[in-house]
Amino acid sequence: MRARAYVPALPVASVLLLAGCSGGDGSAKGTAAVDAPPMRLVAYDSCDDLLNGLRTETAKRVTPWGLDGPALLEKVPDGAMPAPESANGQASKAVPQEHSRTNVHEAGADEPDLVKTDGRRIVTISRNKLQVIDPVTRKVAHRLDLPVRGPGMYPGGGDSQLLMSGDRVLVMTRQSPRGIDATERPGMAKPVPMRSQTRLTLVDLAGTPKVMGSMTSETEFVDARQTGSVARIVVTSRPRIDFPVDPHQGQPEQKAVERNRQLVRQAPLSAWLPKFEVRNGADATSYTMPCDQVSRPASYTGTTMLSVLSVDLAKGLGDPDPAGVVADGQTVYGTGASLYVTGTPPQAVAWGRMTPKPVEQRTDIHKFDVRGQGRPRYVASGSVQGDLLNQYSLSEHAGHLRVATTTMPMTPPGAPDSPDSPNSPDSPTRSTAAPRSESTVRVLAQQGAKLTTVGEIGGLGKGERIYSVRFIGPKGYVVTFRQVDPLYVLDLSDPAKPRSTGELKITGYSAYLHPTADGKLLGVGQDADTKGRTLGTQVSLFDVAGAPKRVDTFRLPESSSATEFDPHAFLYWAKSGLTVIPVSRHTTGGGEALVLKVGAQGIDKAGTVSHPDAGYEVPVQIQRSLVVGDTLWTISSEGARATSVTTLDDQGWLRF
């Protein structure tokens, strides 16, 4: 049977889920590019139809190495749960103090981070342990061994992140499979490609912390958002098909491709549907993605499946109620009511041949309704030209989704606009020919099962790319950069006719933009000379009430800040204007927390906070800052430092 498409004119309620297994008009200033075609929700008539579609699309994309390149060996995973270890002392039962939270994009959607606090305790990860700090006694009240491996074994928690609700903490870990010694025989698994794993560990903090349960799957953790006690966790997975370790086995490449295609055509549906193993104490239960919960856009590759899981921290780990889409997932943006996941589809290139045509980037956008506590509902998809910078390139406002992208066509090596060509925007010897890159802000509306462009403004930063974006209400702020930093101010109050209301060109750029209490805009990035050479950390305060202008600037030469690529590292305490930015010195490699006071008239340096050297070759870097009561806490992989918010006097050092 053929897949059937939902008609866009149908009400949304008619297209929220798949059939079960039982049966722009705007001001496109300066852009001549045609928007990418809108995507459609497509349902399958049966599980057999789902399997046939996945086999067909996946078989088109195999190589002599299968889907993942040369196969590696991995050990059989060890499911044992380490016994919890706690330090002496009890967490404070005092009333929560006034405290800062993780710096998030939207107030209604909490984001995973290395550190969480509820004002009664501070919870972080270091040295593969959960560290629980009592901010009143300024001591580490508890330590708990976490049942994770791979990157999480290194100081700082590796790829582990936290969400918190009440007395529960959910630890999300990207686990890398372990390699196997070729001489080791006991317990050896047969040769299979190394696959990433995601582990969710639920910890109870009431009294002495203890592991309540865990969930593991052969998936890649992407991101998560939490509203109330319910977390929505986004993971991706690849088909579990065991291709031969030797790609050729003495055969020509095309023969190897045909052999692998045949393996794909014989693979069962279970190879594509992700499985989740939940352990609660001695009990273990496996869950598999139901085939009637898998959707797909009209165009897909079959090589990646995107899953959105649901975990209620208050209830514990159980059936993750996954909703699946046969698509890739790279960037997550949530509002509390809606969850958007975007991905850049791989380009289809015939094996052994390279297309001579430039490749236009495209970003696919998938929208889920996550209101309530049940399974997320996949409601719409859309597609736009260009690439996103990060989640701040997306913003939902008054029923519309604003999307900022940069289009920089990719071409084969040696082509007129390729990176190694003299005409390339990235070539130091390029000619005066106009570069082709530019940025666009589009406004999308949900029309049935489609996210359709209803307005756009393009031509932003020709020959440059986006370095930061911030949407605040009906306004948008976009920073592009190559040699100078144009800060564009956009009026998006009319979704069909977005327009630019101002532009400010200065040297350097802002990589992160944050609104201040008095309506100004704070930018953190890099100072630069007139040729675009970066000089060091730059913090700028902009007045954007009218024509944009820079009110004040603070510069720290020969340094950079983690805030430039990770907004969670940024702290702004609106009550006093306290602003904390972790910085790294280029000359020494040392790190410190730069403490500023940001007011209506300017930026003043209050001081710095540093952590003692741990004796490693790599200097200690401060990762996070937060306020609890009248104390500024700075966190690194080595420990936590308590500092007076008002005087920056040292109040204690806690080594992890």
TrEMBL record:
Upper taxonomic lineage: Bacteria, Bacillati, Actinomycetota, Actinomycetes, Streptosporangiales
Superkingdom of the source species: Bacteria
Pfam families membership: Beta_propel
The keyword Signal is annotated on this UniProt entry: yes
Keywords from the UniProt entry: Signal
UniProt name for this protein: Benzoate transporter
Signal sequence coordinates: 1-19
Basic and acidic residues composition-biased segments: 96-112
InterPro entries reported in the protein's UniProt record: Beta_propeller_containing (IPR019198)
